[in-house]
Amino acid sequence: MSKVYPNLFIIGAMKSGTTSLHEYLNLHPDIYMSDMKEPGYFVDGVNNIPDNPEAYLDLFVKGEGKKIVGESSTHYTKLPTLKNAPERIKVFCDEVNINPKFIYLMRDPIKRAISHYWHDVRKEGQYLSILDALKRTDRNEYIDFSDYAMQLSPYFEIFGKENVLVLTFEEMISNTENTLRQIFGWLGVDEMIELPKDIGAHNTMPAQFNKVRGRGLLHKMRNHPLWNAISPLVPKTFKKKAISMSVKQVTVDASHDESIRTYLKPIFLEKILPLEQMLGRKFPEWGSLRSD
Length: 292
Description:
Blueprint: E1 8-12, H1 18-25, E2 31-33, H2 53-57, E3 68-72, H3 85-95, E4 101-106, H4 109-123, H5 130-134, H6 141-144, H7 148-159, E5 164-168, H8 169-174, H9 176-187, E6 208-212, H10 217-222, H11 225-230, H12 236-246, E7 247-251, H13 257-279
Parallel strand pairs: 1-3, 1-4, 2-3, 4-5
Antiparallel strand pairs: 6-7
């Protein structure tokens, strides 16, 4: 069996519809998107896949014979937290003589930051209030990952603007079929294939979920390898008590959205200027940034 290499990368942004796009592209008979989403192979600090070329290429075996073979990793546009993804992708593609293409989805930056926060509450043990998290003075991923010009710049410089398709989440969900046909044409596959009539969003966040209590110390202890080792010896009643003490159910709270918008709007209005110049377009679909 000949080796199959990826030639398409959906690179982000996080919480901007990349899971949906990944699934949409798999509908095309000439496209194969890896079963695993978010392998994050080209950045350090992401352990979703073993750090060796064979494990990475195993993701694409089922794509043999397809014109477009791809993966989706929002980790590739998480500067400055995760660095050097475009440089590493360039080295990889040059070694196997591939000219890659990239798709970058952007979302109203304020809404993306808010969604990112609730993702962290749900999955990463975020215990700060949303305003406290957004106002942190050290490295602030909620703001950095919504700085789309910063994230796109190295890809434009290394691979050329013509190889990076930049879309917005809002245009994709408002007219999914037309957006997909635009993507298919850009990728050089048949634009006019029949698409399902019930295309819908994937990976939506539930309204209620568990949040760690306090600073999450008990939650971290429950997920420590030592706990996993002794867990079979611990009575079930104690385990249930530990779970109830370490997490609590919360509901996504939109009551602070206006104060969040007031705080973030001037920050992102400044950051959107280089993006507009870079792409030569405005973003009227981003309602959070409109004038009141």
